[in-house]
Specification:
This protein is an alpha+beta fold and about 250 residues long. It folds into 2 domains: about 35 residues; about 200 residues, no CATH class. The chain has 3 helices and 10 strands; from the N terminus they run H-E-E-H-E-E-E-H-E-E-E-E-E. The chain is globular and about 60 Å long.
C-alpha cells in the first residue's frame, strides 16, 4: 500500500512540476513578447515631375483606418510630415470614399536628387509608432490603407530577393488621385505612395511581420481632374509564431 501511495505521490509531483514549468514557460514567452513588441508605420509619398507644374492642386489618398483616422492622418493634421515644402498648403479632407491630403501650390519645379529613375522627386515621409498592434494579416479590414480601394483582386505575389515566392497574400486594386495643373505637353508626372505597417519583437531571437500597401499613377502633359491609380497590397509577410496577448 505504501508503494502505491509513494508511486502516486511521485507521479503527482512530476505532473505538478511539468504543469508549473509549462505555465512558467508560457508566462515568460508572453512577458518577453509584450515587453519587446514595437509596432510602427513607415510612410512615403513621392511626386516626380520632369517639368515645371503651375497652379497645382492635388488630392492624394492618405493611409487611414475605416474610421478615417490613423497615425499618418494625425501627423498630416499638424503638418508633422517630413519633406513638405514651406510654400505648400496642405489640408486634410475626408469623405465616405477615404481620406485625402489636398496640396495647393503655385509651382512645383523639378528637384534634382538622383533618387528616382528620372532623377527628380519631392518626397514626403513619416516614421512613427502605432498605439496598437498592427494588423498585418488583414489591414484592408482593420488597419491603415489607401482608400478608396476598389475592384480588389487576389494576385500573384512578387518574388523575394532570393527569387522564391512570398509567403504572404497579395492583392491588386484601384484607387483615385485628383490632379489639376498646367504643364508642357511632353511633361511626365509620377505620383506614388506607400505605407509599411510592421510589428517587431524578441523572445529567443528577433522576429517581425508586416504588410505593404502602395498606389501609383503616371500622367502626361496638362491634367485637370480625377485619375485612377493602381494599387497593390501584400499582407502576412514574416513570422506569426507569437503568443496572443492577454489583457
Amino acid at each position: 500500500m505504501d508503494k502505491v501511495i509513494k508511486s502516486a505521490a511521485g507521479l503527482f509531483i512530476i505532473i505538478f512540476v511539468l504543469f508549473v514549468s509549462n505555465v512558467s514557460y508560457h508566462a515568460f514567452v508572453e512577458k518577453a513578447y509584450r515587453e519587446s513588441l514595437t509596432s510602427t508605420y513607415s510612410y512615403t509619398c513621392t511626386i516626380s515631375p520632369d517639368s515645371v507644374l503651375s497652379n497645382v492642386t492635388l488630392f492624394i489618398p492618405v493611409p487611414s483606418y475605416k474610421t478615417g483616422n490613423s497615425p499618418v492622418v494625425e501627423r498630416f493634421s499638424v503638418r508633422g510630415i517630413e519633406g513638405i515644402p514651406p510654400e505648400w498648403k496642405t489640408t486634410l479632407t475626408g469623405s465616405n470614399k477615404g481620406t485625402y491630403v489636398e496640396i495647393k501650390t503655385p509651382v512645383i519645379a523639378p528637384v534634382q536628387n538622383g533618387t528616382t529613375k528620372h532623377g527628380y522627386a519631392i518626397e514626403l515621409s513619416l516614421q512613427t509608432t502605432s498605439p496598437r498592434v498592427v494588423d498585418t494579416q488583414n489591414p484592408q479590414g482593420n488597419d491603415a490603407v489607401f482608400h478608396p480601394m476598389q475592384d480588389i483582386q487576389t494576385v500573384d505575389c512578387p518574388a523575394t530577393v532570393n527569387e522564391t515566392p512570398s509567403k504572404g497574400v497579395c492583392y491588386g486594386y484601384l484607387s483615385t488621385v485628383y490632379a489639376d495643373y498646367s504643364a508642357p505637353p511632353d511633361a511626365r508626372v509620377t505620383i506614388s505612395s506607400e505605407i509599411i505597417g510592421r510589428n517587431t519583437w524578441k523572445i529567443f531571437r528577433p522576429a517581425e511581420n508586416e504588410y505593404r500597401a502602395s498606389i501609383s499613377v503616371l500622367m502626361f502633359g496638362d491634367h485637370h481632374g480625377w485619375i485612377a491609380a493602381k494599387g497593390s497590397l501584400e499582407t502576412g509577410i514574416g513570422s506569426y509564431d507569437a503568443p496572443a496577448l492577454h489583457s
